[in-house]
Amino acid sequence: MSLNYIILRNLKKNIKNYYLYVFALIFSVALYFSFVTLQFDPAMDEVGASIKGGAAIGASSVLLIAIVAIFLLYANTIFIKRRSKEIGLFQLIGLTKGKIFTLLSAENLILYFGSMFIGIGAGFVMSRLVLMILFKILAIQNLAKLRFSPEALVRTILVFAAVYVLIMIMNYTFIKAQSILSLFKATSTTQQRIRKMPLWEIVMGLLGIACIGGGYYISSQLFGGKYTDMTELMIAMIVILALVIIGTYLFYKGSVSFIFNMIRKSKKGYLSINEVLSLSSIMFRMKSNALLLTIITTVSALAIGLLSLSYISYYSVETSARESSPHDFGFIRQEAEAKFLQALDKEKIGYEVLEIPSIAVYLNVGDIIERYNFKEDALTNITTTVISDSSLKGMDLRPGEVLMTGYNNTLKSMVTFKDSGEIGFITKDSTITQQLTGLSDKSVLPYYYGAGLMGVAVVDDTVFKELVKHKDLKAQKKTSDSDLYYGINLTDQSQAKQAYEIYLDQKPEFPSFSQYEFELNQRTSMGLIMFIVGFLGLTFLITSGCILYFKQMDEGEEEKDGYTILRKLGFTQGDLLRGIQFKQLFNFGIPLVVGLCHSYFAVKSGWFLFGTEMLTPMFVVMAVYTVLYSIFGLLSVLYYKRVIRESL
Description:
Elements: H1 3-39, H2 53-82, H3 84-92, H4 97-138, H5 150-177, H6 180-185, H7 199-220, H8 230-266, H9 273-285, H10 290-315, H11 317-324, E1 329-331, H12 334-346, E2 351-364, E3 369-372, E4 382-388, E5 401-405, H13 409-414, E6 415-417, E7 422-426, E8 431-439, E9 456-459, H14 461-469, H15 473-476, E10 484-490, H16 496-506, E11 512-514, H17 515-558, H18 560-568, H19 573-606, H20 615-646
Parallel strand pairs: 4-9, 5-8
Antiparallel strand pairs: 1-10, 1-11, 2-4, 2-7, 2-10, 3-6, 5-9, 7-8
Helix pairs in contact: 1-2, 1-4, 1-5, 1-17, 2-5, 2-17, 4-5, 4-17, 7-8, 8-9, 8-10, 9-19, 10-17, 10-19, 10-20, 11-17, 12-16, 17-20, 19-20
């Protein structure tokens, strides 16, 4: 029997166990090749108009290969341990360790580089689809063409060849370090089995739940006014991270076993076949995989959280643009406004002009602030911009009344106002007291006028004239060098792009504002981040799902003898399969639910800094992640079904 024959026979024999590994490898190579192709694609110049799109894609490709390399090395560890008995048998029949290494290297060479070249081909085809998705997200009107990049081909081959060398080094080290006896025992020592749960493990389980709960609580208080200094805020974030990660590890190490042990004790040891195959198995196996599950859960939570925050920003683009610039265009300098209007008239673009006088005033707000997330001395010398109710359509306030506008989610996180109370407008001669009548999240002036923490105040016209008459020049310099703001709204929004091109051609000096520009910039930046995080998250999802699936393959092979005994005792395939379904629900469900909880509290603590809507974008991301993650649970059930069928 020649070595070549053994290589081909082993490939044929093991290919059924490698199919998901091959799929993950092909997908990873295809995605990496697509990303590197994008980096060298001239079409990325469109993205690079506002940010360095090619550099962002290049940085993401480095993270991508790091994720893939870790997955491939870990998967190789699982596979070589599974084949330890086979390696031991090769040694027993007289093959040297060098020849065994050559045999494994040849198998991996065929499998690895065969998958790699298929992945490159798939990546070449997929690169156009990836570019189309990116253009769709960024709303770029450009044709995505299929281009082959020799630079991307060379880089992909070099990177994955380097990973292959690392795998070979790992295999060589494993074969050299193992004796024949240890090879036959390698798989039997991978899992930890404990009959009785010790007291220290119960304490560990309770401590894990307490750490996670503590991390969640601190995250809920992060922007609630408890931490008023940047140093305190950073320390709180580090504490949250440490508590959640340590708590997650202790949760898998002790909490899961403790909870399931309590369930088992409540049944006084009388467990159904479903509970035997699910609860009892997970109790003793999950803690031996605690570190792996902690890493998977933490990175999953990070991926879901980052994708949720970027999608929140992307989802809130239009609302955020209206908050930053409530009118289609805005000017402070009358010359720039007149020049722009002249150009609009020339192109026959209809518009409406709003002239809004404003004044900056020092405030006394101690009576209306209920909670604030800053140091107390920040309450002194607060200024706000004040405008007249006559400047706004449909607004009519009585003398003595004031309405605070621009009270958005970010401002709400920093300060909470009472529903009513007195506000003192400090002039150079006296203090004019007004009654707060309401708070509005609607912006009436661009962000440039949002002086400090108070938004923009609207008062009766007579009060406004009194404030102008006695204005404090020091306060006025704090916000704007002009008392008059010109807001321009187009009568036909289909001409917005044409008007924006005129705005760009004129290049008006700051301060000038374009709602279309705000929307375009945020859509480009957050869209690209969402695109990158989405594909990196998808890569991690597939690789982590494959790792959990490979672990279930290991467990299935170990438990095969137990299934044979249960079948001989009269249990049907259906009885065993129902227990396996419960087991996989816990095996895949627990890390998923814990990861979702981590990401929920992380996003909830600071989502308002990224957009105006939390629940819809976050639940969409979580739903998609859950559906894709569940596929690996279904695949593991199908694998167990085959194991059960072959057990008798």
